[in-house]
Design brief:
Elements: E1 12-13, H1 15-22, H2 26-35, E2 41-43, E3 46-50, H3 51-59
Antiparallel strand pairs: 1-3, 2-3
Length: 66
Amino acid sequence: MSTPSRPIEILLYTPEEAAKALRLGRSTVYELMKSGALTFTKVGRCRRIKRADLETYVANLSPYSV
């Protein structure tokens, strides 16, 4: 009998994974990255978004007011 292993916690997201997590389109995530609204890190030629940066982005969203 083996001990159950914990799932690995994702620390860096691809733009596609970030889009799924935020429930936004992939191109929207790229636009947010380009505008500076969503911070990202380059690892070689790849862009990666830290989980903490996703959480910060969501926390700083203003509520919709009519």
